[in-house]
Every structure is written in structure tokens, then in C-alpha cells.
Amino acid sequence: MPGLTHWHSPNFHAYYPTAHSFPAVVGELMSAGFGCVGLSWVASPAYTELEVAMMNWLGKLLDIPEEFLNCSEGPGGGVIQGSASEVTFVALLAAKEKMVKDLRTLNPELKEADIKGRLVAYSSDQSNSSVEKAGLLGSMPMRLLPSDEKGRLTSTALIEAMEKDKAQGLIPCYVVACLGTTPTCAFDDLSDLAPVCKRENVWLHVDAAYAGTAFACPEYRHLMKGVEHADSFNFNPHKWMLVNFDCSAMWVKDARYLVEAFNVERIYLKDKHKGLAPEYRHWQISLGRRFRALKLWFVLRIYGVEGIQKHVRHQISLAEYFEELLRKDNRFEVCTSSMGLVCFRLKDGDKPTQELLERIHERKIIYVIAGQFRGVFVIRFAICSRLTQRSDVDYAWQEFLSQVEFIIPSNKNIIADEINEKKSIATIELPSAACENINCNEKSK
Amino acid sequence: MPGLTHWHSPNFHAYYPTAHSFPAVVGELMSAGFGCVGLSWVASPAYTELEVAMMNWLGKLLDIPEEFLNCSEGPGGGVIQGSASEVTFVALLAAKEKMVKDLRTLNPELKEADIKGRLVAYSSDQSNSSVEKAGLLGSMPMRLLPSDEKGRLTSTALIEAMEKDKAQGLIPCYVVACLGTTPTCAFDDLSDLAPVCKRENVWLHVDAAYAGTAFACPEYRHLMKGVEHADSFNFNPHKWMLVNFDCSAMWVKDARYLVEAFNVERIYLKDKHKGLAPEYRHWQISLGRRFRALKLWFVLRIYGVEGIQKHVRHQISLAEYFEELLRKDNRFEVCTSSMGLVCFRLKDGDKPTQELLERIHERKIIYVIAGQFRGVFVIRFAICSRLTQRSDVDYAWQEFLSQVEFIIPSNKNIIADEINEKKSIATIELPSAACENINCNEKSK
């Protein structure tokens, strides 16, 4: 297909994955075919009811605390939004609503506008651009605090920033913690941040857009330790969980703050079934809604828990394999490696790393993009396509090798013998065009 | 299909239409199949480029002023958003951005927060609930001003409200005019409102969510007279223009205010193609985008201008036919009739009208919903499905007749003889169950 960037090519390693699977495509097709609009329960009951059920299934798949689920007895619940950007903004509005209510309960003389004008939000400098955007949209300054050496927001930085703001008469209101940051897939430590949020009565939102899918595997759940203290939690099945864009899963512990931030009742939306099922239009920006729960249903039924776990573990193993390859060549340096993402650079510094990336971009054999970590320029290598296999990682590695050759010529000793023996491809002595052929041959095996 | 409300049944006459057509479904399927994410031009060039082209085609189809189009020389342009709710909110943010900039240019000592805390927005009490919601989301009080006897916002009401606010130190910032209000499809007079907005330096947004499609037909364009003075314009191809939900078309005269309200640059989004095509992520809330332009392309290519005009004219003619039927029975009163929507009631008042609606809801033969117009309870009858024909309007009318009989028994004289003769169905003498059968038979003819 001309004009498209092939996100589902096994040679696409840019950004993060965007999910794709045939069950999800069928779900999308059926949703378009039915063509209803779920603007309220009565406007298409199955839209709401299947979404309630799917958000419960999904919450159980990830093993998030039960009080987030629709099936719990409390005011918690889950909803499908369009994107993590939307969710971060929506949660910010709920946080604002809660803070205004809390402060006015303590001091009824405070004016709403005065409170709102003094609210502040926090996240790390590693959070997604959409977090900063949520602050812009919600007119709440978003402090992007310096992360630690592992790319994490720390309670120390958070406390310091909050104290500084409070000293200026401002009111800490909202914290966005990241489980899997965009640049390097770093994990903030929720059990470090949560006590601060609790003490300051600040809304803690957890953005696990990409990495959240990994919690389907018990061995990764320690990375969300402390999630029980969060007020809202978000991950995108449309990133890593095989559900086509858009499908962003959001849970809140107390949905009433959302509903109060959004609720605008008009007569043409009133009906007598009110109160029996959530009216999701009060949980989101738009009035209308597609039947996105159907995509989730198809994927969960056809892949099942084990299918999803297998997919996650396979993709992580491919990233680990790529990391191994990098570590065996001492021109390269692995900066971070987490889940399906490896960030690396050339030891010689930013300029040669940048040159390597430019060469790769110029050739269009594989696609990777730049990142920045602790002030240095890195190349992000993500396992993206559902179709990517070990041979595709080899193929990408050969592409990097062929191009680094023009920047830092190797001698055979530099490349660990092991790789050359295993692959039997004398890539490093060949000029670039020949390399490409060899890689193609390798590929077709 | 159990559990679904069949928006595309020819007997669905509730809310407004939501569009459905096979070309659009194919477009949606292909978009899901490609499964790319258009988070920037380079992340899938065709996503951006086809959208630019389609928004130009669409603007020309409706004959909106050229300065709104991407192909004009100025800073205007069009973008596909998810819903009119999103658009109204996004335009509000742009209006806020502009006002802050304008006021600080005049008086650099003014603080941003002080300006933002004093901004006010206006619309009529007939605007969609999403307009009020946009005010809530954007922390800008939205005054819902009383409409005139035709359901229109007037310059008199607008000036009065603005003067009142200014006297209290507030700053008028944003006006949402409706071309086709939700309750009755009333049209605000833009040429009446625009001079006020211009004088007060207020952003004028035009919400033509449903009725905008009618401007594909030259005979309805007089209803948007004055649109050249608007700052932004929105209509939903996903309502009446045969493009499946979601596809909401938004144009702005100066996109720079949007971009400035949204722009958050991060290194992983940077690339060297910047500036050549619009980066639509700065025009909207989310970072990711589906390939919605494809649905538009399929519909525009397969239906063509004439196909869309034919569809609009046919649906309006069906509403006019229903209005005729109502006018011939003196138990009924037509309250408003505009485009594909007729609002009516029983002359005997709210209570019997409400009872009639309850009976119709109970029976589930056709689906209509309530509305309110100038303080009275009305039933909204909208031509919704692409498949609705004259015989379906007859079918709905027989359903109303059969039920009104229990509330206001007729004698043969009340129902105009003409109808009975034409249809040869002695509906009015029969009890409800029998009516239903007759209607079904009538339908199957």
C-alpha cells in the first residue's frame, strides 16, 4: 500500500505497537454494520451492557483491585474511552471536581473559580505528551518533574514540588503515574508515590497505556504494586492487547466524580430506565459511542487469557533477544530495556547515534524512531507487529550492523564471533546494498 | 438482533439519524484492516493527506467559504473529529487561546489565569447538551439564553446577556450558534448574531451537526447566510450524510489558535517532514487517529453530489408528508417542522401527549422520543433510516392513530376522509392489537 506507514510489518519497530488482529477487525466490522449509537442505555442496551461485562473481564484479566470493577458493590467502574489522552484528561476533570467538592465541604466560603485557579498537577518528565496536553486542556498547570536514573517519578521529587507549590498558595490536585513510560517503558513505583497522594488528598491516576497488557501475566504484576491506592487506572488494549485502535480501558474507584464533572441532563435524553446501568455518556467527552465492547469480546473469546499471555511473553522474549545482540557488539550500548522496548545508542555519543538513525530512515528497510533518556539521544527499538518473529529481529539487527559500519567500521573481533557463526552471514565485510540482499535472503528462509 | 435498538429500521424515528451506508462500512473495514495510527504525518502520510483532500471536497460540497478550507491560502483548514461534542469543546479552547492572546497584546500586564477565570460563553436554550458540557469541560460558564418563538438565539438576547456579564467584570469569549437545533431543528440567524460577535471580538462557532448535510442542496444554503463571519463550523457526516459514526467535520478560519491550544512537542514525535502537512494531533484531544477519511472517500465517490442531494431531499419530503398527515387530523398540532424532523403534540395538552408517547413506547412498534418546545411537551418524529419510505411513514402514522384512539376517541369525521379512502384501512374503529396486524399487513405490501 503506497502512502501508508506499515505498522503491522514485522520490520516496524517505531513508537509502540498498535494492536491488530482479525477478531478485532471482525468486531469493528460488526459494530459498523449494526451502526447504532450508544448515547444512552436505551439507545442500544447491548452497547452498555456488553461494555460493563467486558470491562469486568478485562479488570479480572489484569487482576486490578475489585473495587475498580463495575461488578463490585461500590461506586467504581470501568468504561471504554478512545485514547489514553482522553482518559488522562477525563481523570483530571474528575480530580478537579473532587478537590473543589472536598475543599468546599471543609470551607463553604471558598469560591469554585478561586479553587480551580490554584490547582496543580504532577507527572514525570518521562510521561507521554498527552499528559502535558491534559493539563493544557483542563487549565491545570502540569509539572513535569525530573525522573530518577531509572526514568521513574519519585516521592522525593513529588514532595518537593508539592511543598514549593503549596508555599505559593497553590493546591496539589492530580498526579499521573506511569507504568511503562513512553520514552523507555519505565515503571513509576506506585507504592512510593501513593502515600504522598493520600496524605495530600491528591487524585492518583495510573497511565499504563502500553505496558498494562503485561499484567495479564502474573509474573509482571509486581510492577503495579500499590495500584490499590490509585483513584483511576488506564491501559490501552489497542496498543498491546490485539484490539484494534480505538479501545482505551479506564477504571475509576468512584465514578460519581466523573459523572458530576460531565452530567448535563436534557429532556430528550431522559428515559425511565435510568439508574439500572451506567449512562456512559456521563463518563466521557462525547455523547455518542460506537460498539467498541464488541472488539474486546471477540479478542477475549478467541485468544483467551492464555493466548494474550503467550503474545505478551513472545514479544518480550524478542526484545530480550535484540538486547542480547546489542550487548555482544561493543560499539553499542543498551540504555534501557523493558517489556517489548529496547533503547540503545552508539557508545561514541549522540552524533554518531543520530547519524545511524538517519541512515536507517533514509534506507526505509526497517522503521525505528529517536528518543531521549537522561539527556542523551537514543534509538528506540520496539517489538510492534503481532507477526514479528526472531528472524525479523535478526533482519533488523543486520540492518543496524550494515549501517553502523559506515560510522564506526568494525574489525571482525568487535562483533562477537558467536553471532557470525550462528548466522553464517559475513554481513560486516559487505557494502550496504549487498547486505540488503543477504538480509532479504535470510528473511525468505 | 436482541438487545440492540435498531437505528436503521425504517420504523426508527427517534433522536436524529445516525448515518449508515455500505460504502462507509467498507471504509471502516479497510481502516481497521490497515490498522495504522495517524499520530503524525510520517506515522502514515495517506491518513493526513486524504483527510486534507476530503475536508476540501466536503467544504466545497456544502459551499462554505473558501477561507475555511485547507486548499485556501490562509491559515484555515478542516479536520475530522469524533463528535460535535468534541468539536464544540475544541473550538472553545481555541476561542480561549485567542482571547487570552488578544487581551494580553492590548495589556501585557494581565495574567493568563485572571483572564481565563472571567471568560463566558453563550448559546441558546435549544442547543445540544454537548454545548453545555463543553462549557463544563472547559471551565467556561455557558449561558443558555432564551430562544425566540422560532427556537432561535437572537442578537437582542445575546447583547443583553453580554452587557450584563460585562457589567460584572466578565469577558464574553465564545458563542455557539446552531443551524438545526437538537429539539426542533431550528436555525439561528447567523447574519443577526455575527455583527455582535464581531463587535465584541467573540469567537463564533457554528454547530450544524445534523442539518449541515442539507447545505449540499443549494436550496437550503440561505439558512447558513452569514457563515462567512464564523470562526469555526461543524457538521456531522455521521448524522445525515451516510458516513458511519464517527465522522464529525470541523473547519476553522485560523487553525493557529487550535494548534497553540494543543501543541506539546516531544522528541519522539519530531521528524523532518514537519510543516508540509497539518499535524492533526495538534487539532484534537487525542494523539492517535483512525483513517476516517476513507469512509468519507467511499461515500463521496459512490454516492456523489447528486446521490447525497437526492438522499437529503427524499428524507425531507418524507417529513413533509408526515406533517401533512398530522395537519389533516385536528386532534394533533404541528409545533415545528424543519428538515427531516417534525415536532407535534395533541391539542389537548401535555398530559395526553405524554400518554400517547408512553403507549407508543410500551408497544415498541415504532420508536420516537419526547422533546420540549416553548415549555410544552412534544413528540419528535424524525426521518432517520436511509431505508425509510413513504409506506413507513404511513405505518408510523397508523400507529399514532391507533393509540390516540384510547386517549381522544375520534369519530370518523375527525380523521380526514381522504386518508381513509386512500389507505382503505379502517384503523380507527379497531382495537389496538388488530391495528397492529393491519399495520403489519400494510407494511408487507
UniProtKB/TrEMBL annotation, chains A, B:
Q: Which Pfam families does the annotation name?
A: Pyridoxal_deC
Keywords recorded for this protein, A-Z: Lyase, Pyridoxal phosphate
Stored Gene3D superfamilies = Aspartate Aminotransferase, domain 1 (3.90.1150.10), Type I PLP-dependent aspartate aminotransferase-like (Major domain) (3.40.640.10)
Q: Which cofactor does it need?
A: pyridoxal 5'-phosphate
Q: Does the keyword Calcium apply?
A: no
Is the keyword Lyase assigned to this protein? yes
Coiled-coil residues: none
Q: Which family is this sequence assigned to?
A: Belongs to the group II decarboxylase family.
Give the matching PANTHER family.
Answer: 3,4-DIHYDROXYPHENYLACETALDEHYDE SYNTHASE, GROUP II PYRIDOXAL-5-PHOSPHATE DECARBOXYLASE
Name recorded for this polypeptide: Dopa decarboxylase
What is the source species? Molorchus minor
